[in-house]
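The authors assume throughout that readers already know how a fold can be written as discrete tokens. For illustration, here is how one protein appears when written out as sequence plus structure tokens:
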Amino acid sequence: MAEEDVSSVRSESFDTSNQRLVYLIAAELFDLMTDITTESQLAPPPMMTIQALVSPSSASHPTNG
């Protein structure tokens, strides 16, 4: 009986802390997404910068290895 009570209390506290963690992660993701959208309005799209970083070496040296 006592063990079951303890386990139910543990699962309840775990659920609440887990829910809080999910809310925190969601808030962080929301902040990150808003940061990305505001930055993308100022800076070029990420793919263009990635291609600019990758393509010069592959374009000047088509043979790899």
User: Anything to note?
Assistant: The chain has one domain: 2-53. The helical segments are 2-42, 46-60. The mean pLDDT is 68. Residues 2-42 form the longest helix (41 residues).
